[in-house]
Each structure stands twice: as C-alpha cells, then as structure tokens.
C-alpha cells in the first residue's frame, strides 16, 4: 500500500485508526506482529506519524490493553443490565466468551509484562472492569471484595484453561454449554 | 566445572540427575535458560550424554512438566489425606501455594506450547492431578465433572492472577490469608 498523505486524518482520528488497525494485526498475528512502522504502513501514513500518538511500542501495547479493558467492561455492563435476574452468571459467561473470541487481546490485557503498577491508565481501566464485577457481586465491604475476587478467579481460570487447551472437551461436546454449566455454580 | 566421566552415573541415575539440575535451572533462569548442552555442563557429563535420555529440548521440557505434575499431585494427595474434614480447601490452598513457590515450573506444566494431545505421558500426569481433585469433589458422574472443573477453574485462576500480579495486594496484607479466604468459599 502506498503511503498516503497524513492530512486525511484529523487529530484524534489517526490515533483511533492506528488502534483499530493494531487490533486487527494483534488478532491475526499476535503481539509479535505489532511494530509502529508496520502499523504506519497498514494505515497508510508516514513511518514517523504513529510516534505523534505513541512514544514507543510499549505505549501502543498499553493503549491496546486499555481499549481491550474498556470494551470488555462495556460488554459486561451491558449483559449485567440485560439479565437482572442473574447478572453474575451472565457476566461470567461474557468474560469467558470474550477471552475465547479475542485470545491475543485478552492475553495482552492480562500480560505480566505490562506492569499495571507502572501504568496508571491501564490500572484504572482494569480496575473499572473489576469494579463492575464487584458492584454486581456485593457491597464494598471486605467480605464483598473476597466474594468478587472469588468470582473473578473462577471465570479467569476457566478462560485461561480453555485458551491454553487444558480442559479436555469431548468430541461433539458444546463448549458454550459447558461454560454455562461451570459458571452457573457461581 | 570440568567434564567428569559419565561412568559416575548408573543408567537411570543420570536421567534423574539431569532432571534435578534442570529443575534448578528452570527455577532460577526460566525456560529460556534450559539447553541440553548447558545442562550437560551443569551436571558434569559430556555434551552428548543428555541425548541418551532426552531426544530434544522439547523432550526435556516434557519430562520436567511430567515431574512437576507428579510432585504437584503427590502434594495434593498428602494434604487431602491429612485434612479429611475439608480436603477441598486444603488442596486448593496447596494448588495456589505450589504455583507461587514454583512459578516457572507451574507455567511450564500448563504451557499451551506443550500440547498434551500429542504427549500421552504428559496428558496422563496432568489427568492424574485432575483425578485427585475429582475424587475429593465428587463421584465420576457428569455432574461431578462439572463440580471438579469449577473448583479447578477457581484455584487455577487465583494462581494465575497472583502469579501475573493482577490482584492488588494491600501493603502489609497477608497473601496466604487472602488465598485461604478466597479458597474457603469453594
């Protein structure tokens, strides 16, 4: 693809275009395929243009993880609102399905390489996801925190075990039904 | 270290010596530090000697994961037997503590790179760990499987979230006490 003029992107639009293109590359090729120069080529801007929005590859990965958490939280909030009878089970299933549908993004969001302690924006986006769970599970007491951590551990573990191919799924077995059965014991 | 005569190892002893040395290297340096030649040097045998026991680096990693599962299962069986009143909580805590004490070994045991479907020995060792959990949780019915998967998902998720630094531990908070509280809701 030829490098088009950067002027087709208004300020802000280029950042969004870069993030969208990066999400596509991440989904197809994994984190290893993501470089700022390749991204510039994919979006059709000069090699230097992405640096106006992302200082480094690490900054791009952080922005992708933040975007991932925002979409993840929005999806969990929407499903909790739409299933008021059992919001916890609905959120749990959404958590696991999100991971299976977006494996590379999910791994990036929870990558130990992206240290949340050193990245306030990422920590805030991750906390918002946990707060959504906590509001549904219980109040803000210490006991409520334990309950929310317990529910989180279960859905996260199920997502990771399925992503990593650790749970033996029988031939013809319906993975979504299995997820629903395991989650329903929340 | 100078290369000693291979004759100091009887058949079988060398394999065991290589595995023990590899476990130490894995714990200290992670998987990246493990090569068959480095291992030969660490044990003090000729560079070719490890190949009599392990065809390849992948075979060594598989043997380490099998050893990990055997020790993990033995520890869980011992703790379940010693705490008959609440074997599930005891096993759950042991699961998470094993992961935190042996992070690199735990990651290797559950690595998606070591495909269990293609490695019957590894699949058998992993199944033995799951069977230990399943015997404690319930019978061998379909419902028992769901209960066991549910308990597994929870302890695995807690282990992974703690290993990856995703759960915010307050200053002065006791991690083992937190684990026990979360597990006790099993």
From TrEMBL, chains A, B:
UniProt-recorded Gene Ontology molecular function terms: DNA-binding transcription factor activity; transcription cis-regulatory region binding
Domain HTH tetR-type: 12-72
DNA-binding region: 35-54
Keyword Transcription: yes
Keywords: DNA-binding, Transcription, Transcription regulation
UniProt entry tagged with the keyword Transcription: yes
Pfam families: TetR_C_33 (PF13305), TetR_N (PF00440)
PANTHER family assigned to the protein according to its UniProt record, in alphabetical order: HTH-TYPE TRANSCRIPTIONAL REGULATOR RUTR (PTHR30055), TETR-FAMILY REGULATORY PROTEIN (PTHR30055:SF220)
Protein name: Nucleoid occlusion factor SlmA
Organism from which the protein derives: Devosia equisanguinis
